[in-house]
Amino acid sequence: MSKFFFKGRIEKKPKHSSCGYNTKRENKLGTETNPLTLIVNTEERQQQLEAQLAVEQLFATITVDANAEEDITELTAILNKPVTTVFDKTPNRNDPCSCGSGNKYKKCCGK
Asked: Which domain of life is it from (predicted)?
């Protein structure tokens, strides 16, 4: 059959839900269903982290082990997320200049 007479798609578009891929899944680290796993050395450090988790509204399972090395990398990764950089909008050519000279931007800083 010629492509000029065919209307519609040749192959159907796959449905993600039928393929086993859940698009509405919420599997964030630090929630009740997926808590952080932290290892600390002392009970005092455990109480400090529990206070910090309460402020940040995160959930974690904290294990106290004096022989093991302290591991709070998951918590520091969540707390130190990179922030999107936002730049100020540059003025148009006929707007007043932002340096405060009173001239138009095109005559002052927009050379």
From this structure: Bacteria
Is this prediction's pTM over 0.90? no
Q: How many CB atoms lie within 10 A of CB 110?
A: 15
- CA 73 → CA 20, 37, 53, 55, 85, distances in Å? 31, 9, 14, 18, 24
d(CA 72, CA 70): 7
**pLDDT recorded at residue 12:** 67
Tell me how many domains the chain contains: 1
Token pair belonging to 34? 């997926």
Asked if the structure places residue 65 within a domain, the reply is yes
pLDDT, tens only, 53-103? 999 999 999 999 989 899 999 999 999 988 887 777 777 878 888 888 888
